Amino acid sequence: MKRYLNRLIDVSIAGALRAAGCVVVEGPKWCGKSTTSKRFAKTVVELQKPITFKRYKLFSDVGDEGLLSGEKPLMFDEWQKIPDIWDYIRASVDETGERGQYILTGSAKPLENNGRHSGTGRMKKVVMRPMTLWESKESTGEVSLSGLFDRPDRISGEDKNGLFNIAYILCRGGWPQAVLDKDKKIALKAAPDYVESLVETDIAEVDGIKRNPARAKAILRAYARNISAPAKLSTIQGDIEANDAVLDIRTLDSYLNAFKKLFVIEDVEAWSPKLRSKTVLRTTSTRQFVDPSIAAAALSASPNDLMEDLNTFGLLFETMCIRDLRVYAESFDGKIFNYRDSGGLETDAVVHLGNGKWGAAEIKLGGDENIEAGAARLRALKEKIDAETMNEPSFLAVITAVGYAYRRMDGVYVIPIGCLRE
């Protein structure tokens, strides 16, 4: 039996099955959706297998009752290959009123169907991403993100990775098979193989539109050069290789939307708090991939390359931290945003909870000067928020790649990503 590393989403799936008739587990391929979901299912239908697909497509086309037969919970893996399954399951849930009957997993959004019911009240979606450092056993977990909302007087922890190993973890990514592979050279091939499959096959299958693999790869590379920034489409367009300079903005948008449907691109939305001043908030999202290894592979960057180019390293490190923060925050009803205003103040991540509590984080590779600059930005953000209409920040933190976890005299926490957990 293959070794299984527990995932934070395990709890979310279990809770969703208790709350809804069907749970939809979405996320990029290779992130572990099938392996994790099978632990909750009693019957599994793998639609990616041609023989199984043909059989169940026929059941769907003729409305055969065999489509939903089997001991529940019944799981359809890659359900988007037969989109009508959605409506059959919704009708089944309506009829029985029972919870925890079905699990749908998908690594791509299905083709648009304006007649498809939203599934509200019957279907509960759960987003799965590649593994965080806590899940891959590469974080000590000495500092809890949720615990920071209790404003501890002190924290402690020591990063065990070191800067080069963080570069390796970043390039390898959070793909479970790569995480479990003890051969680092083989593990580092996972992300390039992922990108190759993405541009050669997946981007055409997602919506049936034929696309140029070379152009798709060039767009991914340009996107990677603009991650962790609020780049406009025109900026990304201008960053495409010279031999594809005639790329139309609408074509670029079509490719990017395809990558979003494949859960590869996951930008960070802008936060809109109440401010004391009349400073104008910037609403452009920050460009991000769901995993930093996609950017590293698109740029053909190795761990050694990143050690020689700390600027690129820093941008990709931010992508990794945003991935982990998203997974940690969503495990306790939180969301991640960015903050930018017309006065030039920026904050990499705002953790906002459903109850209105929030905290902010700056992401830095390390170094006393960088930590000090990050802390200064966080204090400036705190001063801009209108405390009469919003909560004061529960915490301010600088997340680093190496070093120790501690609380500064000004109250700002310094936390290595290798010490953080949910």
Number of E-state strands: 14
Mean pLDDT: 93
Number of domains: 2
Instruction: Sketch the topology as an H/E string, one letter per element.
Output: HEHEHEHEEEHEHHHHHHHHHHEEEHEEEE
- Secondary structure: helix percent: 25-40%
Number of helices: 16
Basic shape: globular
* Model regions low in confidence, pLDDT < 50 over at least 5 residues: none
What is the makeup of the main sheet? 7 strands, mixed
Radius of gyration: 22 Å
- First CA to last CA: what distance? 28 Å
Structural account:
This protein folds into 2 domains: 9-127, P-loop containing nucleotide triphosphate hydrolases (Rossmann fold, 3-Layer(aba) Sandwich); 143-421, no CATH class. The chain is built from 16 helices and 14 strands. It has helices at 9-19, 33-38, 50-62, 85-96, 145-148, 163-172, 176-180, 184-187, 190-205, 213-224, 233-238, 249-261, 292-298, 303-308, 310-330, 368-384; strands spanning 22-26, 43-46, 74-77, 102-106, 123-127, 143-144, 157-158, 334-340, 346-353, 358-363, 395-400, 404-407, 413-416, 420-421. The strands form 3 sheets. Strands 7-12-13-11-10-9-8 form a 7-stranded mixed β-sheet, sandwiched between helices. A 5-stranded parallel β-sheet has the order 2-3-4-1-5, with helices on both faces. A two-stranded parallel ribbon has the order 6-14. The two termini are 28 Å apart. The mean pLDDT is 93.
